[in-house]
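dumping this here before i forget
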Amino acid sequence: MIDSATLAAGLDPATLSDLLRVAGSPGFDRLTEQIRRTGGCAAPIRLSGGTKLLDPATKTVLHAYTTDAEPGGVLRVACGNRRASRCPACAWTYAGDTYHLIRAGLLGAPDKGTPDTIRDHPRVFATLTAPSFGPVHNRPGNRSCRCGTRHPEDAPELGTPLNPAAYDYADAVLWNNHASELWRYFTIYLRREIAARAGLTQKAAREQSRVSFGKVAEYQKRGAVHFHAVIRFDGPEGPDTPPPAWATLSLLTDAIHAAASRVRVVVPAAPAHGITDDVPLTWGEQIDVQPIGAFGHGEELTEQAVAAYVAKYATKAAETTGTVDHPVGNKEALVLFGIPDHPRRLMEACMDLDAAYPDRRLRAWAHMLGFRGHFSTKSRRYSTTLGALRQVRADYRATQQRTALGLPDPDEHPESTLLVVAHWTYAGHGHTPGESWLAANIHRDIQHNRETAREIRAELDLEGELT
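structure:
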């Protein structure tokens, strides 16, 4: 039920009016159930249609479902958007999947195809950043910024240029645009540097070891992308085999630094568009590599901390710097959206350079400050996949549905083949204002309950270790 005090808590008249309409509708309970099943998705996909479950031998209809009796005649399905700015509920689920993906590659997860022995493999947490494109306002430890001010953590000027007129906006967006290529070359050089330090040919090194990684992209306040990556040594067959004795943490750390320093991507000059010389793109000098310790042994950087950190940034994008989370067609629109000066200049640089490098689609990616890569990626053998994690949820719900309908389990009764006949039509997406308020509160409650349960489990696990 929705009490009157809750309704009066800061709702605008339009939302309140629509919420009262929704709460008084005859299908309110079913609507609430649908929204809860989407996790409180902010922009669900609306489908109309139905499905039938048939016994192919007898042509008997075992179960039939249609949206005709649903609220509004539609079934709501979660949008699955990873961006927290678009859908906090689906982004929260995506972050959770990313956490388990990264964690499985650190702790092991036999049920997900990664052995527990993975914890004994050398692994580091590496951060690769962009070079400087001009001095910016920052917080250098306990010292004052170059401007003479000690900025607070939430100061809006942090990350903005000390002298915008001298800041290299063109190189900054070109670097973002080619960041994925920089990473690709880094992985190539890393394997070469590992072989050289082991005193082996590249072929021999590949026959004795594998390098796996899981990474995420994050925007710095200045608008430059940088990558956080878990990089791990494996044996010749991947995570199921131990790495050779020469595959040490120190060798991996040295190889990462050396490989990063070798990477160089050259963007050709475009004199007709103001780029008079070739633009060499490299990694910045601030490359951080830290060993990842096991949980509960006093290390500063634990497996859980790394997985949580990577998951945190898997749902964030350039909008954290002040841009918008959708494409923008022209410079005039930047003013209408009220984008702050520094990200606006970066977006304008993308639009100005679009004609110079049409294959790079800089205008289309201006809202991402030029970056056009995937935010979360991994090598094939690092651990499980996001698709596999989603399939686990789908299988769980399918099992629940079969149990509720009294249908046989296909794993236990392979002879019980069922035929599914379905027809679905797209019927729109999103919520009305009142439904949006309801979905946000349902998502908040689900998240709170799960986080509370997680904290309780963690306390019980700790008590078990102490006893």
